[in-house]
């Protein structure tokens, strides 16, 4: 694939998908150096496609078969890259658990092939995906409508990353920001508002480390992507959801809302009555205001 990519670019995936997929399917048995080389190639393929696609999309002479080739290459590369990110994440998490030091702190992990920094590599891969999704790739699909399956592929990868307990650590700041921006693009450009709302609720109900992380993500969506309405949607779902009544879920939702109130109180105010029972006044105390009966 490496040689073919040099000569034909990202469309080389059409003839070499099986080669790259074999690395993914046998990930645990593959040498670390090959794992890392495959990741590097896929990141380069997606990045190169991002550079090529604007001209392709503006080409009025583009044939249906050429359009389909670019669409298939795009779907193949995004599938392989997202699944490889998840495979690396799973492996890294297991290694962290196996390398916990005597005081309960995970030792710094390095690749057997050298000083491979997974945190930096993951953030970069997500940023490359973000660049691709900023383009008008919907024009590659018939009816200019991106398939739901493609959207789920991207968002599922983001949620998988967030599930990792170490995502809130300082070393993963770049990854947290990349995930927030990637999901922001999915919500704004790919009709993922409802899906993102449900994702936030589900993650809060199952992962106690996520309230601060998700509060910052929602703040990013509301302030940098103009998605203020998602704040109300999430609050409405929390207020009405049965899952939030359970002790762990309720506690996480309360912490999330309190964190959110510290960041964007003015956007929460119109819907605060929906969640007051859950919060028992915590948000009002945080704001230093009263009158939300």
Automatic annotation (TrEMBL):
Residues 32-196 form the Condensin complex subunit 1 N-terminal domain. It comes from the Eukaryota. Pfam families: Cnd1_N (PF12922). One of its GO terms (molecular function) is histone binding. GO terms for biological process: meiotic chromosome condensation; mitotic chromosome condensation. Transmembrane segments: none annotated. One of its GO terms (cellular component) is condensin complex. PANTHER family: CONDENSIN (PTHR14222), CONDENSIN COMPLEX SUBUNIT 1 (PTHR14222:SF2). This is Condensin complex subunit 1 N-terminal domain-containing protein.
């Amino acid at each position: 694939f490496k040689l073919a990519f040099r000569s034909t670019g990202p469309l080389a995936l059409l003839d070499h998908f099986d080669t790259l997929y074999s690395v993914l399917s046998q990930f645990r048995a593959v040498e670390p150096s090959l794992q890392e080389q495959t990741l590097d190639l896929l990141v380069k393929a997606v990045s190169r496609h991002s550079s090529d696609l604007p001209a392709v999309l503006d080409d009025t002479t583009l044939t249906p078969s050429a359009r389909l080739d670019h669409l298939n290459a795009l779907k193949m590369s995004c599938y392989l890259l997202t699944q490889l990110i998840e495979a690396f994440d799973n492996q890294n998490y297991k290694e962290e658990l196996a390398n916990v030091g005597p005081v309960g702190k995970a030792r710094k992990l390095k690749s057997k092939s050298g000083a491979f920094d997974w945190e930096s590599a993951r953030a970069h891969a997500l940023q490359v995906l973000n660049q691709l999704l900023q383009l008008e790739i919907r024009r590659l699909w018939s009816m200019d409508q991106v398939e739901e399956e493609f959207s789920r592929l991207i968002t599922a990868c983001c949620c998988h990353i967030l599930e990792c307990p170490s995502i809130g650590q300082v070393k993963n700041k770049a990854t947290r920001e990349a995930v927030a921006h990637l999901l922001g693009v999915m919500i704004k450009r790919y009709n993922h508002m409802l899906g993102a709302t449900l994702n936030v609720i589900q993650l809060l109900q199952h992962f106690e480390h996520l309230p601060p992380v998700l509060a910052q993500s929602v703040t990013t969506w509301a302030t940098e992507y103009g998605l203020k309405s998602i704040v109300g949607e999430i609050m409405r779902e929390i207020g009405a959801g049965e899952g939030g009544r359970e002790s762990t879920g309720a506690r996480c939702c309360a912490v999330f809302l309190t964190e959110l109130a510290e960041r964007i109180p003015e956007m929460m105010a119109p819907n605060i009555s929906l969640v007051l029972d859950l919060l028992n006044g915590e948000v009002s105390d945080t704001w230093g205001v009263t009158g939300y009966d």
